[in-house]
Amino acid sequence: MEDSRSNSRWVFINLLHGVLVLFMNSGLESATAAATSGNETDILALLDFKNLITQDPLQVMSSWNDSVHFCNWIGVSCSSSNDRVITLNLNSKKLAGSIPPFIGNLTHLTVINLHENSFSGELPQEMGRLWRLQHLNLTYNSFVGKIPSNLTHCKELTVIGASGNNLVGEIPEQLSSLTKLVVFAFGENNLTGNIPNELGRLSSLGFFQLYGNYLSGKIPSLIYNLSSIYYFSVTQNQLHGQLPQDIGLTLPKLRVFAGGVNNFTGVIPVSLSNVSGLQVLDFSQNSLTGNIPGNLKNLQSLYRLNFDENNLGNWEIDDLNFLSYLANCTSLEVLGLAQNHYAGELPSSIANLSINLQKFTIGRNLIHGSIPVGIENLVNLYSLGLEGNYLSGNVPSAIGKLQNLGALYLNRNSFSGSIPPFIGNLTRLTRLFMEENRFEGSIPDSLGNCKNLQNLNLSSNNLNGSIVGKNPLP
């Protein structure tokens, strides 16, 4: 008897599913809704979703059957008052497939979370019927096509995340009608065109992420006035223009401000010193000029300051004086100054930089003189880049005290003398580049202690001998 009842139920559901398809194709959604209960509509929509799953290595969909109430299916949550589906959470389930148009029938949904799966295909316009939807997370899948303009009907949306997909086209300006949006994340896609001015109307916006696209033009000035923004990343696009000089006043809640790999020009705004909670400031690979403002010393929470590959500095001997101010940034872990217009000597004040510093790059400038002995204080350095300068003299023993170093770049300078034996103390090294200097003599046997070395270049010096366990130099 039990099997008979189950079979009858599935026949009913399948028939109803066929009726729903017929009515949807005829544009008679209202008649369909009147003919079915909301619960059965939800079941059918979920089954349609299941039917389009093509890979399910964790057997998630095995629970989606008539032996279990659909509200107890893995990833499904229902309202306690009416058993309507309110949450579809299939985060990191290794699923592949596509989203069916029938997703639009789950009209009580407030959350869709498909983060980190392998879903593909286009996002159906029917998602615009989910007028209760608050949280849409489609990040790190393989969705294609354009951002559905019908999402503008989802007026309750506070989170819309679709980073890490293959979406194309322009950002619909109509999304500006989603006035409750807090998170707007479309990074790592193939979006083109300008950032719509209308997005400046999103007065609740806090998380603004568009990195890794092909966006062009300038950032609309209205967006710089959204005082609620705490995360701002437009890295790796084709944007240009200058950073507003009052940005530290208009975006006081910034924690992350990133726009690397673009075409920004002008100077670094002095007003950023007012953003006391700023943690990441990264505008590497642009065309910024001037210098790093000394008053950034006020940023006690700053742990990443990266201006590699810009036009900072004036080829003058006092270009690096600002480093003494950065000693106040006690949380600093990354300092990127490589490939700019810096000259002069490395100041002794680098000894006072944050003890938390892990990466320091200042290569490919016109810096001369010797490496300050005080560099030995930076005991947590993992990567030190001094390449492509005019540094000279012997490599100081202070370098041998940086025993957390994994990467050391001293190449293309004018260092002389022998390669010091204390290099062998740096047993965590995976990359060591010392080519194109004036080193001479034998390669120290101690270099054989660096068992983790994966990349080693000592060429274009005047060295002889071999590394223990390695072939002789040609």
UniProtKB/TrEMBL annotation:
SUPFAM superfamilies: L domain-like
Gene3D superfamilies: Ribonuclease Inhibitor
One annotated GO molecular function: protein kinase activity
UniProt feature coiled coil, ranges: none
Leucine-rich repeat-containing N-terminal plant-type domain: residues covered: 40-79
One GO location term (cellular component): membrane
Subcellular location: Membrane
Superkingdom assignment: Eukaryota
Topological category with respect to the lipid bilayer: Single-pass type I membrane protein
Signal peptide start-end: 1-33
Keyword terms of this UniProt record: Glycoprotein, Leucine-rich repeat, Membrane, Receptor, Repeat, Signal, Transmembrane, Transmembrane helix
Primary localisation category: membrane
Pfam families: LRR_1, LRRNT_2
Protein name: Leucine-rich repeat-containing N-terminal plant-type domain-containing protein
Organism in which the protein naturally occurs: Manihot esculenta (Cassava)
